Fold these 2 entries.
Entry 1:
Amino acid sequence: MTPEVSASLLLDLYELTMADAYRREGIADRRATFSLFVRSLPPEWGYLVAAGLQDCLSWLQGLHFTASDLVAIDQFKIFHPDFLDWLSELRFTGSVRAVPEGSIVFAGEPLLEVEGPIAEAQLAETYLLNQMTLQTTLATEAARCRHAAQGRAVMDFALRRVPGTDAGMKLARCCRLVGLDGTSNVAGAARYGVAPSGTMAHSFVQAHADETEAFRAYARAFKEATVLLVDTYDTPLGIERAIQVAGEMRAQGIELHGVRLDSGDLGPLSSLARRRLDEAGFPGMTVFVSGGLDEYKIDDLVERQRAPIDGFGVGTSLGAAGGAPTLDSVYKLVSFGDRPVRKTSTGKATWPAAKQVWRRTDWSGDLLALADETPPGDCYRPLLEPVMHSGRPRSRGQGDLAEASALFEREWLALPGPLKRLRTPALHPVQPSAALLHLTATLGSGQPGPGAGEQQSRLRADRTRSASD
Amino acid sequence: MTPEVSASLLLDLYELTMADAYRREGIADRRATFSLFVRSLPPEWGYLVAAGLQDCLSWLQGLHFTASDLVAIDQFKIFHPDFLDWLSELRFTGSVRAVPEGSIVFAGEPLLEVEGPIAEAQLAETYLLNQMTLQTTLATEAARCRHAAQGRAVMDFALRRVPGTDAGMKLARCCRLVGLDGTSNVAGAARYGVAPSGTMAHSFVQAHADETEAFRAYARAFKEATVLLVDTYDTPLGIERAIQVAGEMRAQGIELHGVRLDSGDLGPLSSLARRRLDEAGFPGMTVFVSGGLDEYKIDDLVERQRAPIDGFGVGTSLGAAGGAPTLDSVYKLVSFGDRPVRKTSTGKATWPAAKQVWRRTDWSGDLLALADETPPGDCYRPLLEPVMHSGRPRSRGQGDLAEASALFEREWLALPGPLKRLRTPALHPVQPSAALLHLTATLGSGQPGPGAGEQQSRLRADRTRSASD
């Protein structure tokens, strides 16, 4: 009734029908290059943090259709048995060039390029888009929250609201990647080496006849790690009760960690909590807040209200759920055989050919060039590097995430402030190389649709500010 | 470095710290009831389609911490070994009452209630919220698209854009639940018995030197199942080429299935495609559209433009990603021991005690009552039913999804039109029973915070229209 199928079936049906058509034409093995990139950034986003590559490489390396998979496909009654035979032998034998995880990238720049037999490279489209889009969205959103918090702690509290368990786990991984301070997700903390974070829910307070008794019970159990949730009934009263219990614990030689506010007007309430804790002799106790936070609310609390908050627990808005922008990511054929190709659909035109992105070492701009162009000079570094060759990853082993995290820290330090802005960020200039423009014009002349300049101007949209303004 | 952990660790850290605190207090086994509900509906949503229960019951039934899980938790250095011993023995022994999957529910109505030892029932919070929120969002969004299409086919094309693989699979399941016509997700189609859907990508056209050659190659391979994607270069020209190939195939006795448009102004372009296909003698060929569709765009094409479209492929907006509303779902302690409890935080007050929802059989309103109240009368039916007892599901076996799907069809037929509206839907009245109001007032008087009427008035928000307007 419900056959168990492998992760290799995480693809759109048309990847299979096209593979079959290529096979029948005898061109399934002809080499193709696909480029995965984000067409344009969400209006308020000035950059992307590339993420998801490791899962993509694992999927490619593991690609094969099990007997159960083939039975499931056969039951669709769409394909001939000789296609299923062909599928049963299929492995990914292509190569991948990619921007390392943790890199900063911009609209129109390939996050990865897949080169290989067209049928294999085409099959990878759905999974690669799914994971690169998800993880790049999560990593970028997390980085924006980190920026808004200006050095205060940011914790991922999103597992309950993130769309599904895969997104929840990948979010924990992205927390590690972009240096957030913790996650509430126990599986994610364990799997990816993020600090686990969290103390008590309102239900814990409600389960006790009295708020003070609830605080005492928790403090007895967790001592110095105790953060008391003070807003179950009445926040000012909750703060006083927390102070009372903190005093009782101090008498036993134990200093509590802090309090958390999860509702109400967090600016004034955090000021009240800070003032009362200080007055009562607990300047070392911290004030955490949570509840409907996103990067804009964090920024408002930190920058405008100067609220005395030590840490933020962020839920929904870290989770790529409603409200988070959807990345306009695509996986486009850019060459086939010895022929560079491009799509010219209205509003969806693409650059042809395998590419390299060259970044000026002073971050003043990027050059989108053909992959085989001569390096533009010493003041540029290339972003895409070979990560898989003939189906085998150029493995860096278990250290991948730590390495990606270290790379992100270097990128984050170098990323110009105007690009980090939460609203109306500066536009990082991404210019096509002369050779790319020339090739595009050559192809464009023979086909209908918009000309070569269309994509570049659309990338800019209404965002004509430069990084120096 | 990266230990493999089980799905039982898909929980927030504070579920564990609270369990430990309860254990130390000697009250971990005291019975508690938690209620999972959506506080308020997104502004344009008139109803919810309940979904996710089966996965929740499976998770509860499988709850146990493996040796690897315990090692991972131990490495946090938060817990004492005696808590880990206690955890190693833990299973879910509680009971669940729930609204069956496929039911229509409204704000404030429990989708499920968990009754059991407080430590166990608390541990389930994160996973249950994650899955019920995700799947109820996906099912409702899918139902709204079905409504907008007014009987035309709707296909899920969202796997590449849905946030992660779990969400992609659950979306395919929801397609089956609410009767969409197909999914592009091969694994989802196989797993949940949904019709697989999809034909060719732009890359297939680009991989051929000539659009007509691409159409011929595909039509030769898939014959009557062929849907030609006509917008890679120039849509009107693509339509003519599709007609040419359809004529060539007809000469061989084969009638092609249709064409698909994926860009541009879909209303006029679909009219052009329909007119040209009819003029050329192919009135049986269908017109499919895709590309940035959601329920509002489908409605505009169907209702306002009267576009001659036979089917819609929907991506992002089915996928609970950006743009889709986030459900304000919560899992609240409503009784502990023999004591009903409620939370009175500002703007987050809740009703106390285990509940039953009674729906008037003419759909004129619901009654939110205490679980142990006398049934209100013959013109009401109860929505929550027992689905798990002492940790064992009241299994209905493999037929669950088919049964849920059949239930949804009955609900969909009965759901009043004004509640189905895509914008400014009517408000379905949900009234607290006299006994619930009385109990709430009793509890409220002894605690600070908003009074008993607060939640009901907030549910209504600005939406004071009735179902009869």
Entry 2:
Amino acid sequence: MFTPGDAARTTHWHPPYLLYLGNAIDDLAIKTARGLAHWRPESCVGQYRGPDCVPTLGLRDMDWNQAKAEGADTMVIGTANAGGVMGPQIVADAIAALDAGLNVVAGLHQKLHDNPGIVAAAQRNGRALFDARTPMGGIAVGNGRRRSGRRLLTVGTDCSVGKMYTTLAIERSLRERGCKADFRATGQTGIFIAGAGIPVDAVVADFISGAAETISPARLDGGWDLIEGQGSLFHPSYAGVSLGLLHGAQPDALVLCHEPGRQHMRGLPGYALPELARCLEANLEAARLTNPDVKAIGVALNTSGLPADQAQATCREVADLLGLPCQDPVTMGVEAIVDHLLSCFAN
Amino acid sequence: MFTPGDAARTTHWHPPYLLYLGNAIDDLAIKTARGLAHWRPESCVGQYRGPDCVPTLGLRDMDWNQAKAEGADTMVIGTANAGGVMGPQIVADAIAALDAGLNVVAGLHQKLHDNPGIVAAAQRNGRALFDARTPMGGIAVGNGRRRSGRRLLTVGTDCSVGKMYTTLAIERSLRERGCKADFRATGQTGIFIAGAGIPVDAVVADFISGAAETISPARLDGGWDLIEGQGSLFHPSYAGVSLGLLHGAQPDALVLCHEPGRQHMRGLPGYALPELARCLEANLEAARLTNPDVKAIGVALNTSGLPADQAQATCREVADLLGLPCQDPVTMGVEAIVDHLLSCFAN
């Protein structure tokens, strides 16, 4: 029997989770853990905070033995730091978690599997290690063949404008309406949330579109694959990833994501953000290569930098400009966007 | 002192070369060796052909000891086969070459460095091994900052339409005219010919544009970096590589490469080739992100599938259509294209 979830399951660890915050110094450092706690609260039994940890997720504090006793299966190292380094404290804590009987998953650049002490602890306890940033092997080169099923991809004017959040919000809305829908993760945090996926920015360049094809295989159940976008066609550092993902995703529907007021492309002060209409048209034009029938179905704005009344006004302006529903998924939800999606693909 | 050649020298082996053809069954299997023999004949002392080898490069046949006696420094495994596999005969011959005192370089998917017997032979003989398909470490993410120097990039309607050949022909023409010009290799054969370069299709996806920036660093000597293009913005499997390369190359000049009469995109029977004008405009539009002043300066056609009179007529038609000089670099040279390049960038 066809199970799209399994076909896309390229990594696999299991809830319930203990979220490891270590000695994080600020909220940014626990962004990944926060995403998991927000989108999969039922999967998170608690948090582990080191003695110098500043932020909190508001979950119950517990150590490894308590987490194990509460039924936790896996400790998620959901912290980020400069360079993705796995410092000595993280190593020691990972070993302690393994010794307490937990599996461990991490998304740092430095790999659990490259640390002999961690590998030895996993072996002596019969526990599993997962490096979420290591792409699976055996991804094929993209073939561009039209495949069945419906796919939505979020695209952006820039990096970090809310593509993952928007995609997950659409999954939740579709599921609440009784539609089959599966979030397909392409980045670290998304992979933690989905428990599966491929970090497309970490695959070998020749395999970007192949990776997108792999995580959203043909489906015959009438449901939607909702594919997390990455980067932007207009980001000079990462546009190749965005284009390969766009071609491989073969999307039927695009949602454009944007943060009003951003002064320049992320990390590149010399580069202005593209105009919304131009950015959307460039994405549609490129997407037509593998799906000539692609449609734009909505715009998601991150208005966190605007006063509430201005946020509403900005959404109305953008909706008028592009002729599409426009909402901030965090403060306004995505119902108008999902309404339009379903009306565009009613048959 | 600034030496652009050194800055881009990411791998380094040295002529003179013995070209290893092994037991190649046809001309396609020795395409890489043929490229090297064609573009760097002064660097090739001879060829080694196994007992079952069918094709020849027309070089003198010799074994490893003869090659060493004739001054060869390095054996180049310039064969290709399905899957890039390094079979037992290649392994045995690589070891024999090392034992005869040659260094060995190969561009197969399977690596010399992953074969314990080859590594041991290199160690006991104090010889070096180079895997041309392994990207250097330490490539940074592309930063998109405008850099000095002039750069030309070949772009294509498809894969394998003559981008490398065209780029090398332009290098030769510019050098014959007394201009400083350096071919910058981005693929396996080009890297063999240049003795340096980065296989951009083999880098991690986030680093495509960074790799292009690395191989064509800022230069202040008034010379040209001539960057070998890869793939096509219109190839569903590889367009991400092409876009990242286009952004990172920051080209001042584009040359469009095309093979008239090709029935579909390489490897993808369902995909027609893009129209020339549309393909060129899409490349210019994308290139403007990192260099708003980019210009198209010529078209290179591979007319090997056409009768000679039709080839000339086709070039005239394309020249009229696009308003650019159009030549087949193999049969007509690239002088009209280089004339136009120099007139466009006279100051």
